[in-house]
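tool_call predict_complex ligand=adenosine-5'-diphosphate
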Amino acid sequence: MKGKINFIKFIQVWGILFLVGLGLSIIAVDIIDSYRDFNFRADKIRKDFIDSNKQIAKREVERVVDHIRYKRTQSELLTRKKIKARVYEAYAIAHNIYQQNRTVESKERIQQLILDALRPIRYENGSGYYFATRLDGVEVLFADIPEMEGKNLLNMRDANGRYVIKDMIKIVKQSGEGFYEYHWTKPGAVGNNFKKISFIKRFEPFDWFIGTGLYVDDVERHIESELLSDISRIRFGKEGYIFINRFNGDALVTNGNRISGTKKLWEVFNNNPQNMKAIFKKEYNAALKPAGGYIYYSHIKLTNPDQSSPKVSFIYGIQDLQWIVGAGVYLDEVERDIISMQSQLNQRIRTEISHFVLIVVGIIGLFSLFFKLLARKVNSDMSQFITFFERAAASDEEMDTESIKFIEFRQIAESANKMTAKRKETAEALKESEQFLISIFESIQDGISVLNPDLSIRLVNGVMKKWYAENLPLEGKKCFECYHNTSEPCDPCPALRCLESGEMEMDVVPGLSDSDVQWVELFCYPIKNTATGRISGVVEFVRDITQRKQMEEEQAKIQSQLQQAQKMESIGQLAGGVAHDYNNALSVIIGFTELTMDELDPNGLLYENLSEVLKAANRAKDVTRQLLAFARRQTISPRKIDLNATVGNMLKMLRRLIGEDIDLTWLPGEDLWPVKMDPSQVDQVLANLCVNARDAIEGVGKITIETANEVFDAAYCADHEGFTPGEFVMLAVSDNGCGMQKEVLDKIFEPFFTTKDVDKGTGLGMAMVYGIVKQNNGFINAYSEPEVGTTVKIYLPRFKGKAADAPGKVTTEILIGRGETILLVEDDPATLKLTRTMLSGLGYTVLAAATPGEALNLAGKHAGEINLLVTDVIMPEMNGRELARRLRPICPGLKCMFMSGYTANVIAHHGVLDDTFRFIQKPFSKEDLAKTVRRVLDE
Ligand code: ADP
Ligand code: MG
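tool_result ok
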């Protein structure tokens, strides 16, 4: 739990942080807003202040300029009045002198008196004096420069090139008096470029004009100094004053003081002349504008000469005075206001922040209190959950939802309870399914053993426990210790292989010692984690395959038997084929030999020779008959027989066959069931078996023939090789002869297998017996022990049907024909010829045909009656039966007789002709033929 945080603490901390953050944001927004508003207002105030102060400054300047203008106009008027009054005074003086002396004095004297009177008069600090000029231009009085008197000044020009005297003469000649402005010399001053305004009046008695003038600059200076003193005292606003400089930079009124003497502005403020020059330049430029203009700059204040403050001033230039008049306002006054406003704002914000802090602290307090409460409640609910979950692993106890305070938690608790219930259900289902799997596990009849990777046993089923009962309990022990009694794993161990390969591994190993389980098959399947692929163990299936092994062995045996049977079958076919052809040849040999012998004298040498031929041919016929019997191609006429009777009839003959040294015991079985068989075949079988038994006995011995009823059920047959289930009649021939080795015993039924000398054994005896037994759906077994003896047992199926009658007595007389017509059909030309000869010899009319087609043809053409059809069974175009069927419509009432060397599959019952009555087996003798033909015709 280290490094993990408490949920409620987490919420609390983040909640507080959130609150603080939110408050800070609000405050920040408020502050930013206030300052923005403040700046806006400050700008507005500043602007308004500047605007209004600019107006004030402008108004002040304009008032001053107006005043200056007014003052100036006033002073000119005054000056003109003054000089006019002076001229009138002078005129009065002159005129008075003239009046008083006109009569007494000469003109020249009077003139002198007047001039003397006027000459010394000075006014206006000495700058005012009188002058008098004759109308012809000669100067008579020039009080300032007397040297000029007496000179004609008509052509004298002032600084502006005006003919001053001429102009004056003009005025007085026209108007008698008048003002005139011009530039002139000045007393006490060098040069003639002083603006002067004069008043002149004609003094008629002498054609003079008398005048006096005043220098404008003097007047103006006078006015100026008055004006400037006045202006220097003007104050407006808080720090407002008027300043005046000349265009040339002379300071006249500066910072509300009149500057005495001539001083440049930058000389007045000499601590930073460069700055002052720059300010003056701004002033000058503004003054050049006709309506004046504002300039911005920094300048010291009257109240605080040490520090310069921002200032805006209105400047107006008075051109004729060459004055720059200005008035300004200090902008820092508004700044001071703004600063005070700002400090108020700051104060307000400080207050707000402190309020905010208080509120936040309060909220945090409340918040903490709330969380403490919440934590207590949640913890109480949580502790219920914790106890529940701690217990949940072991028990299915449910939570008490009623004691949980919060609805949400209660819902969770209900879900948890549902989960518990569900889990309980699942656990039960799991248990059930486990039980289900265990019962499957236990019901499996193979041993199952689950192994850990170290080959220790994890789990085994009941079969394993049963097999390895002495090592119980198996779990936990190593598999090799329990199952193989070894201290090391087996080599190779399929479980180890499986662990290694991850694939199914199998093995077949010998089973438990001292047990029925002789062979086991092991299947090892890896227990693989599908996700990781890791192998966590092995499931080993141990299957008892003892029975299967045995069955396999049996199967192999049966297989070999089957192969043997097939071998016999194919040999049989071969032998049968050969025998059939031999038979046909033998029929011809025998037939013609007999026919020839019929023609000969029985006592002659030729007859004797031929009878030897006949004997040999008959022997050969025996051999082929045996072969056919083996090949089951022997044509037989089975019927219901009592085997005891048949054997009993043969005993005499058999005793003869085996000789006197050998004892023959006959043990007939009681209530022996009948069998269906051709009795001649029983003869063949018994004769052969007895001959073999005789041959096996050297000297004295014993042969036992016995019969018995035997019933075999499937279980018995399963255990007994070669037996088939059912009810059988057993015929056994036993001897105590030399017996047989197994290799011999395995081959005795093969044709031509013999252990006897060439002239003694043919190897066909047992083969024939085998064929006969098989042909009658029986089976044969031979038991033999070398040096002990042999028993051959034949089992013939019990016959349950109705028996066919035994044939009647055989007549020996030769039965000849009575002129009947016989249709003879045979595909073998030699046999056809022989048979035709025989039948003709017997007195029958013979229609011989080599094919069924030809036979049909002949029958169709033949006018008379055909009494009998004698036909071979197997022919290329169609078989004998088919031919008979086809002939029937042509020859109604036609009787049929069949001949055959053997019967093939085309005949309904394999190898068995059901109608033995109308059948003759090839080869046949003339006697046999005569008998059979007569029998069929007489039927
Ligand atoms: P063959 O008698 O002409 O030899 P078989 O077919 O009758 O031919 O018998 C085959 C062989 O089986 C005999 O050569 C003999 O070795 C053996 N055999 C048959 N029957 C017996 C018997 N009863 N005892 C010992 N061997 C026998
Ligand atoms: Mg034999």
